């Protein structure tokens, strides 16, 4: 009997791609980047993640290719280990443990962190797990940012050279260092500063005094610098979202790649000089050709300051939808851990200015079939001045995207707190219906009506009903599974309304606390209504008896029902961490309890239906078979639950890289490798070369012997060259008699073509008989050209068909 696997909390996506500087492989076919506690390997040609290196238990802070083996990679992490990987096969070669030391100095006003630059000598032992004990201090009291540390490989002895600048100047310059980069071949260091200036330091390795020159284009802090492989160009980036290329260290020779989307955090160059890559604050990496043209974009989950829309599921693509760039909705694919596309909701240019109040996207909801999308955006200049706008978007099958249908200004007089669509599949009416709730003490029902006129037919949304309850602020709203009931919470009271007549049916009130979450039960538990309060109570009401069924004090922060089952997930927040409770409304005792799922507070959660039900052995975890639960933490880490191990979660494409793609193209591989098979497949499709292909399909004994003989016993290539070339050629003796006759007839056919053209003109006039138009068809006779073509077909040799 196989023991059931424990339930694990795994990071399924959304990790920051720009936390550390990315690295190219030696041939620039792969890009390696740190993503949370993983190292991901992307293809520079297809933008796909082809491998995931898993093994660290904490944040990966840096990666570097092995100088002695370009197929290996070093990675360091906050878990106190340095790991050596074979990234082509995903094999962990060695683990080196070291101690993480930090000194903390405190005074009466501020806390200072002192960092040390330490050299770690990796032991050369055959063991897979070793411990680094030889540590040597290089420099003390350095900056905490890794971009302020760089190595000079040509300096054999360690010398401390102090470059000093005044922190501020009379002209208002800010000279604080933000990043450094070393020239690969010359005696030069480039440094970036907070005032946007770049300084090139020279002559510091000589007895005379060092000198520096200044380059200035950035208006704000310089985020990162990088030299090209040959050192002829210097790349810089900052908050302007522009990559600047400085030629030969001159202020007059610079080129720009603008509109990259967001602040550039890191810049890397490939070892062969063909690509650059920039890492951005909106969690994306742009691969750029050396000619400053964008080659590929690797977009991760965009992380903002706050996810106000929560986690929403697109019913069409099963994609995760939430706040993306300012004023945008991002559609994120969980299977590929990649963003599908962005939808511009606000449709206004975002101004990068601190303290400026701009339009913010706060609410979003989909209809049951995904045909309609409702969004709410707001802009609040002061407490009194509030701008609200609700937009209804219709899905266009032709463009495969959402188009704006209706814009409603000020749908409520105060903030919109909730909105939801009614599922119209099981209703006879079938009219799309949307309900919004606001702090103005109202909930409004919006329906799709026909706004057609005599000239142009159109459909639009309008308000159909307005409801309230003692003018209390409406905080939540939701429909039942069949759409017949609507529940709206007003402060501490829950009201239930008939969705056909909009009559108030009953009210529920539970002391004390304001209602925070509200949802109906599903399937066999559809007669229950559940809600949570800000005082920590979880309440379950019976709609048939109109009474409280049960309640529990769990301090529930998130309440999420499964759309395909009766299960409901509740996440509670305690002092030590967040706990998960999975239960059914008809049973107050949860059947699955998962303690300490994460240390941070869970902001929101969502169930996403699976395309194919998953086979889970444990009965305790069967609630994950049809739907997958995802939840987002305060640090915007997207987590989920899984009963599979790390190896089982890997897809076949990420378990093994295609080795053929990393091999160099040689003349021998062109003759016998994949390229030759591709050419043969194209030639097989051509009917004119069918006879030639029949001979090649039989194979050559010389080729077979060459491929099956061990390499160490083969003669020299010069000896085999003539034999190999002659074996793939077709000799004249092998041609059939019919082929020789066809070649001879080619000359005679050219001479007869001119005479045949004149004959065909006269024959066409004879063939056109008026009796054919009357339906009288006479005996059909072939022309001379048709008879000649028939004789040619009869003489053709079709013996090659037997070989197939």
TrEMBL record:
GO molecular function: RNA binding
Keyword rRNA processing: yes
One of the protein's GO biological processes: positive regulation of transcription by RNA polymerase I
WD repeat-containing protein 75 second beta-propeller domain mapped to chain residues: 311-636
Major localization listed first in the record, in broad terms: nucleus
Spans through the membrane: none
Subcellular localization, as worded in the UniProt entry: Nucleus, Nucleolus
Pfam families documented for this protein: Beta-prop_WDR75_1st, Beta-prop_WDR75_2nd
Swiss-Prot/TrEMBL WD repeat ranges: 53-95
PROSITE patterns assigned: WD_REPEATS_1 (PS00678), WD_REPEATS_2 (PS50082), WD_REPEATS_REGION (PS50294)
Name of the featured protein: WD repeat-containing protein 75 second beta-propeller domain-containing protein
Annotated source species: Gopherus agassizii (Agassiz's desert tortoise)
């Amino acid at each position: 009997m196989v023991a059931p696997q424990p339930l694990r909390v795994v990071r399924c996506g959304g990790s920051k791609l720009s936390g550390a500087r990315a690295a190219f492989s030696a041939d620039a076919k792969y890009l390696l980047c740190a993503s949370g506690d993983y190292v991901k390997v992307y293809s520079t040609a297809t933008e796909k993640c082809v491998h995931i290196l898993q093994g660290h238990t904490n944040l990966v802070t840096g990666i570097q290719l092995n100088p002695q083996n370009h197929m290996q990679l070093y990675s360091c992490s906050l878990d106190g280990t340095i790991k050596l990987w074979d990234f082509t096969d995903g094999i962990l070669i060695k683990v080196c443990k070291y101690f993480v030391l930090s000194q903390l100095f405190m005074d009466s006003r501020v806390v200072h962190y002192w960092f040390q630059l330490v050299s770690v000598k990796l032991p050369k032992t055959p063991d897979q797990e070793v411990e680094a004990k030889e540590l040597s201090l290089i420099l003390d009291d350095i900056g905490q940012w890794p971009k302020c540390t760089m190595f000079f490989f040509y300096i054999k002895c360690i010398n401390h050279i102090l470059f000093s600048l005044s922190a501020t100047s009379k002209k208002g310059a800010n000279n604080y260092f933000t990043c450094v980069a070393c020239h690969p071949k010359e005696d030069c260091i480039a440094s970036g500063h907070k005032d946007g200036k770049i300084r090139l330091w020279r002559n510091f390795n000589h007895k005379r005094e060092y000198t520096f020159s200044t380059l200035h284009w950035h208006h704000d802090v310089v985020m990162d610098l990088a030299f090209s492989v040959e050192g002829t160009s210097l790349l810089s980036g900052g908050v302007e979202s522009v990559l600047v290329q400085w030629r030969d260290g001159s202020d007059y020779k610079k080129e720009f790649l603008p509109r990259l989307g967001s602040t550039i955090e890191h810049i890397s160059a490939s070892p062969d000089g063909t690509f650059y890559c920039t890492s951005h604050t909106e969690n994306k990496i742009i691969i750029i050709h050396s000619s400053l043209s964008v080659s590929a974009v690797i977009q991760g989950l965009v992380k903002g300051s706050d996810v106000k829309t929560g986690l929403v599921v697109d019913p069409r693509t099963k994609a995760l939808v939430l706040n993306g760039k300012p004023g945008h909705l991002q559609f994120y694919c969980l299977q590929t851990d990649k963003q599908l596309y962005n939808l511009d909701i606000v449709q206004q240019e975002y101004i990068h200015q601190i303290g400026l109040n701009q339009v913010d996207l706060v609410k979003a909801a989909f209809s049951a079939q995904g045909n309609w999308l409702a969004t709410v955006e707001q802009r609040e200049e002061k407490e009194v001045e509030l701008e609200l706008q609700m937009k209804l978007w219709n899905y266009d099958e032709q463009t495969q995207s959402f188009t704006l249908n209706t814009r409603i200004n000020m749908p409520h007089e105060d903030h919109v707190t909730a909105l939801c669509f009614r599922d119209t599949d099981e209703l006879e009416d079938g009219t799309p219906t949307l309900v919004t709730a606001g702090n103005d003490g109202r909930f409004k029902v919006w329906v799709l009506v026909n706004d057609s006129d005599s000239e142009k037919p159109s459909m639009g949304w309008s308000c159909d009903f307005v409801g309230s309850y003692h003018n209390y602020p409406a905080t939540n709203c939701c429909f039942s599974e069949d759409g017949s009931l609507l529940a709206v919470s007003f402060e501490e009271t829950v009201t239930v309304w008939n969705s056909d007549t909009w009559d108030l049916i009953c009210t529920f009130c539970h002391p004390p606390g304001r209602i925070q979450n509200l949802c109906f039960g599903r399937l066999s538990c559809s007669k229950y209504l559940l809600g949570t309060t800000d005082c920590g109570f979880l309440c379950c009401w019976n709609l048939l008896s109109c009474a409280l069924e049960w309640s529990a004090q769990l301090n529930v922060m998130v309440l999420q029902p499964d759309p395909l089952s009766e299960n409901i997930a509740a996440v509670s927040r305690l002092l030590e961490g967040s706990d998960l409770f999975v239960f059914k409304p008809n049973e107050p005792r949860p059947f699955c309890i998962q303690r300490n799922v994460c240390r941070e507070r869970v902001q929101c959660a969502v169930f996403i239906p699976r395309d194919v039900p998953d086979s889970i052995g444990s009965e305790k975890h069967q609630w994950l078979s049809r739907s997958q639960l995802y939840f987002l933490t305060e640090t915007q880490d997207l987590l989920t639950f899984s009963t599979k191990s790390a190896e089982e979660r890997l897809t076949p494409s990420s378990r093994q890289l295609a080795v053929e793609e990393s091999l160099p193209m040689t003349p021998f591989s062109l003759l016998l490798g994949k390229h030759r098979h591709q050419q043969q497949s194209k030639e097989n499709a051509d009917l004119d070369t069918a006879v030639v292909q029949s001979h090649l399909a039989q194979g050559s004994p010389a080729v077979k012997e060459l491929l099956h003989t061990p390499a160490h016993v083969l003669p020299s290539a010069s000896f085999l060259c003539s034999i190999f070339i002659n074996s793939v050629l077709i000799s004249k003796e092998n041609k059939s008699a019919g082929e020789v006759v066809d070649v001879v007839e080619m000359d005679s056919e050219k001479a007869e073509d001119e005479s045949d053209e004149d004959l065909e003109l006269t024959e066409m006039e004879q063939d056109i008989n008026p009796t054919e138009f009357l339906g009288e068809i006479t005996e059909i006779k072939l022309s001379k050209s048709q008879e000649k073509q028939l004789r040619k077909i009869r003489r053709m040799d079709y013996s090659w068909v037997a070989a197939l």
